[in-house]
Amino acid sequence: MLERDFTIVCDRGCDLPPVYLERTRATIVGDVVRDSSGTVDEEALTQEFERTYRSLVASGHTKIASVHSCSSFSPELSCALAAAEAVRDLADVRVVDSGSASAGTGMVLFRLMCLWADGVGFDEAVETARGLAQGIRLLVIPSASARMARRPRRRSRFGLIGRAGASLRMRLSGERGLYLLSRGELTQLARSSDLSDLTGRLAHAMSAVSAQEGALVYASVEVGDGRALRVLEKPLDTNEFEARRLGSVRATADVEKVVGSGAVGVAFAPARDYWRVPEGIPEQARYSYAGSCDPSGSV
């Protein structure tokens, strides 16, 4: 039997189906109090992370890899870092910033799980996961009213009435945005009231990355709208660039609070980075778990 010298912690925002979390006995940080707008009580969340880490230490786990979405998307990362510092005399907690969110975080977490199952050591597994995170991108089209879609406040010479009018026009037109979340930075790439136009632009953005970085792997995300998912995936069925579809996931409630109901997106990475395994792993062991857990098709 392989020696596995670390354990894994994550939160529900990774959007991985429970079956994958259960196979590696990953610990999911529990829910905490939110206000009426869905905002997390960060002090309570930090305490929950600390309780989780201390409980794992009490069970004999002193090496912990804790994987979370970037701080520009959710507060879990900063809370995990604070909790890791609080228990540093008891455990070696390595917090892995996915640089992304949703299925992007899930891709980093899934590959870390494969490394864990293959018996890769703690240091190598964490560094490999962090290296993958550098190449993960999430392209997402949130709903028009989603928290992610709210533009930064700027001074307007038209004052409150002008800003209210602009907001009303956006709601009436149904205009939405295409956003890129990569290495923790959120960038708006386009705006349109036509979902097909935005999904076409999304596919073009993936093609541009593929031209520079080679074949891609990707996972689709939907938030309660199967029709929008079909609109998203149509332009991805193309010969314009080489990409392997890992599957599709339904976003959890935590992610929905940020991107809104009806949102769609794609998390992707260069295939060479996604499938990379540290040197020294026997050929037979390196694919045993990945093959049995490869989420090809819908999950």
Radius of gyration: 20 Å
CATH architecture of the largest domain: 3-Layer(aba) Sandwich
CATH C-level label of the largest domain: Alpha Beta
> If you consult CATH, what is the topology of the largest domain?
Rossmann fold
Name the average pLDDT.
86
Report on the biggest sheet: 6 strands, mixed
Counted by DSSP, the helix tally is 11
> Uncertain regions: pLDDT < 50 for 5+ in a row?
153-167, 286-299
The tally of domains stands at 2
Tertiary shape: globular
Q: Helix-strand pattern, N to C?
A: EHEHEHEHHEHEEHEHEHEHH
Number of strands: 10
Q: Could you say which structural class the secondary elements and strand pairing correspond to?
A: alpha/beta
Strand order of the largest sheet: 7-6-5-10-8-9
Distance linking N and C termini: 29 Å
Summary tags:
six-stranded mixed beta sheet, 20% strand, 2 domains, 299 residues, disordered C terminus, 11 helices, alpha/beta, four-stranded parallel beta sheet, 42% helix, Hypothetical Protein Tm841, Chain: A,domain 3, Rossmann fold
Brief summary of the model shown:
This protein is of the alpha/beta class. Helix content is 42%, strand content 20%. β6 (176-182) and β7 form a beta hairpin.
Note down, in words, how this protein is organized.
The chain is built from eleven helices and ten strands. The chain is an alpha/beta fold and 299 residues long. The radius of gyration is 20 Å and the shape is globular. Residues 153-167 and 286-299 have low confidence and may be disordered.
